[in-house]
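Protein: Polysaccharide pyruvyl transferase
Species: Orbus hercynius
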Amino acid sequence: MKIGILTFHCAHNYGAVLQAYALQTYLLKQGLDVKIINYRPEFLLGTNTLYDFRNFSSRTLMGKIKHIIGSPFIYRKKRSRYNAFESFIQHELNLSSIEDLGQLDLCIVGSDQVWNLNLTHGPDEFYGLLTDKIIAKRKISYAASLGNAEISKTNISNWQLYLSSFDEVSMREKESVELFIANFNKSITHVIDPVFLLDQQDWDILSKPIDDKYVLVYQVHFDQKVLHVASKIAEEKNCRIIQLTSRVLLSRNINLFDTAGINEFISLFKNAQYIVTTSFHGTAFAIINQKNFYTIKLGNSVDSRSMNLLASLGLENRAVMKTEQILIDDIDYVLPNEKLQTLKEHSRKYLLSNTN
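Structure follows.
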């Protein structure tokens, strides 16, 4: 069976690349012919830029001077991060141009926020399969996410347009499944993020040992209270703090990993003593590696995705808002693992039923 995947594979974002790799790898392990369609829309590539002069004109004089002086240093770090991401994308993902695809037996859209109409700036002809450039006998979505897209009459109408193109639909967030079932006359399946389709040992192949004791902090948007939690844990566990960030910073802090590639991301999660994160995929990889962790709620759109995941596994107590109430305890993974295994089997069954 010839399969093409349409997803956010080219964004230099850990979660985006990891979920693309996971879905591809799981299907390859089933003996299927799988390609990731190398669709690279501008709204994704814009996050990969090496030069950033946004808001430069509105900066203060001192701000402009600091930006200019720091630009060569920032550029070198951005280049290092850019090369790390592109190396993984080119060597670990089976890419195919749209022109070389030919007819597919199956086209899969997802996972990630492919149906977040805020991100895609309205309906996207590829993620909605509204284009005649993708020829496939069957078309399904896998763990498609709306992200934080607002529920409006316009968006409802656009999602209705999307759904008319698909034979089967599955989504990542339970709330989105309920929303679609309530608004559209179509069966929707709730499935888990692709990173969970692989087992821990599958991810271990990409990691390297780190001979160090550390609390890993991974946050997409910096918030001081996240470091407050990490500092409390590090003091009790007698560990140092390593910060993994989603963008490069004007800092020479040796404990700051802002140019890490995909393999380093996986290694840092694999070897951490404890994890503090605000990220959905940070939460996911803490669970995959059976780590003690806390997901800090910041009152933004990431919260709902992480909370949905934690609730599905009975780990709601690992999500905290009031950081002064942190209890540094160990997680008993017996029941969460049973719940996770059920979700894995259900999600794998959805994929396998559409690939046989």
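Remarks: The domain at 2-46+93-198+343-353 is CATH 3.40.50.2000 (Rossmann fold).
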